[in-house]
Design goal:
Length: 222
């Protein structure tokens, strides 16, 4: 939406999605929303993430507009000085936007990060933070990490007193059952030689063709 960073009031807060993933907001911004002849100024949370919508209008705007939405009819009705107005949704457009959003999610995006050393005495004690953070937020974040440096476990010696049941792994088997040794497979020399010869011939004639390998008495495709 080409919003200038100077218009954003810095107030980072976590926003949790349906998947449980938390995203930090950049802050808030007051933006005008026009519906027909009605104009309302609303506060929006600003998030620097790919999304299928430019803005999501919630309950505060609906209440201020005295609007009544209907998801079944895909419309929104609200009173104006010139009577009741209706905004209709476009089902085909909505589906195309959802498809574009899903297509974008299939392409993973990697956020630029920078490495920050938290302990000058140990240069390997580093963490990565977002490179696009504002200078003030970056300064506060680094100060908080350095202040709580002892919270991090940099080595196994930093984690004393852990229950042995957590650090020790075992096979989930019944100890009362007697183990059985698997018998050796009996290979037929003639069948093995025939399969090897056939595979070599196929490889020479068409090296891009998928070959089969003999496993026991079955032949499976690579």
């Amino acid at each position: 939406m080409e919003i200038s960073p100077s218009e954003i009031a810095e107030d980072p807060n976590p926003v949790v999605g349906l998947s449980g993933e938390a995203t930090m907001t950049l802050g808030t911004i007051n933006h005008s929303v026009k519906a027909d002849s009605m104009m309302k100024t609303m506060e929006f949370l600003v998030i620097d993430r790919p999304a299928s919508y430019n803005a999501i209008i919630g309950t505060p705007w609906l209440n201020s507009m005295q609007a009544v939405p209907s998801t079944y009819h895909m419309c929104l009705k609200f009173p104006t000085p010139r009577g009741i107005k209706t905004i209709w949704g476009d089902r085909r457009f909505s589906r195309s936007r959802v498809a574009e959003a899903l297509e974008g999610k299939r392409k993973p995006t990697c956020e630029h990060v920078v490495s920050v050393c938290l302990d000058e005495a140990f240069t390997d004690r580093c963490v990565e933070i977002g490179a696009n953070l504002s200078e003030s937020l970056k300064f506060e974040l680094i100060a908080c990490l350095k202040k709580n440096l002892n919270t991090f476990a940099w080595a196994t010696e930093d984690m004393p007193g852990i229950d042995i049941n957590i650090t020790c792994h075992e096979l989930n088997v019944d100890p009362t059952v007697k183990p059985i040794k698997q018998r050796d497979e009996s290979w037929d020399p003639s069948a093995l030689a025939q399969s090897t010869t056939k595979s070599r011939n196929l490889s020479k004639s068409d090296p891009y063709r998928k070959l089969g390998i003999l496993t026991g008495s079955l032949t499976q495709s690579l």
